[in-house]
Specification:
By secondary structure, this protein is α+β, with helices and mostly antiparallel strands. 29% of the residues lie in helices and 18% in strands.
Length: 238
């Protein structure tokens, strides 16, 4: 992977135009299973989405000469777009039949697919709804452990569950790029433990100034361009 991905001046999440905009644009599709009678908890869905991105980045099919490797390179050379859609029943079964990886976290199931052209979604996924993906936690999630990687959400932004899932995915991807090969292997072998939590209002300024990986949204949906959405706090990067 080219170190260009780690350059702040060439961030794939900047609002300002860059060379990435001239490359063909791809998107990483994520589909969350939301059955009408048993929707997942919001935090479970966010954590499943973040873990799904890590599983896709590290899968052997995404690396070297793997069958998904070229699509992954094309996607990472342009803007890093992730789109979350929802499915249930027969929609979910059709999505499961496509090449991809399903990740389960608590009550949530999220399936991630290799990147596709921005205007070239598979028919089975193009039909799925992208708006209105909102979820709740039946009770507040427990505090994250001090040794766990944490994706901190901006407490001042009211993001839908789908938007927050994509932003959590952005955060773990930036952390992944900054880790050494040894640190990546250790995280993968441990099963990608992580937590997604909303930062306290008093702590958010400290997190954004900490030097940890920070996502500034490009502003394609929901929130203003340049908004700080998440900070990726991996112990190895502190």
């Amino acid at each position: 992977m080219s170190p260009v991905h780690e350059s702040p001046g060439d961030s794939p999440f900047r609002a300002e135009p860059s060379a990435r905009d001239r490359a063909p644009q791809f998107v990483l599709p994520l589909v969350v299973r939301i059955e009408k009678t048993a929707p997942p908890a919001r935090t479970d869905a966010l954590e499943a989405a973040a873990r799904a991105v890590l599983v896709m980045l590290s899968d052997e099919r995404s690396l070297g000469d793997g069958e998904w490797a070229q699509a992954m390179r094309d996607w990472q050379d342009a803007r890093i777009r992730k789109v979350v859609r929802r499915a249930r029943g027969a929609e979910w079964r059709r999505a499961e039949a496509l090449p991809g990886i399903t990740v389960t976290c608590g009550t949530a199931e999220v399936r991630v697919f290799p990147p596709v052209p921005l205007d070239g979604w598979p028919r089975e996924l193009a039909k799925l709804q992208v708006s209105g993906t909102d979820l709740d936690d039946p009770e507040p999630p427990p505090a994250a452990g001090p040794s766990a990687p944490v994706i901190w959400l901006n407490p001042e932004l009211g993001m839908s569950a789908g938007k927050a899932m994509a932003q959590a995915g952005h955060g773990v991807q930036l952390a992944w790029w900054e880790l050494s090969e040894k640190e990546r292997n250790a995280w993968r072998e441990a099963g990608f433990p992580l937590a997604v939590r909303t930062a306290g209002a008093e702590r958010w300024p400290e997190l954004t100034a900490s030097g940890l990986p920070l996502v500034r949204d490009a502003g394609f949906t929901e929130i203003a361009p340049g908004s700080c959405t998440v900070v990726a706090d991996h112990p190895a990067l502190r």
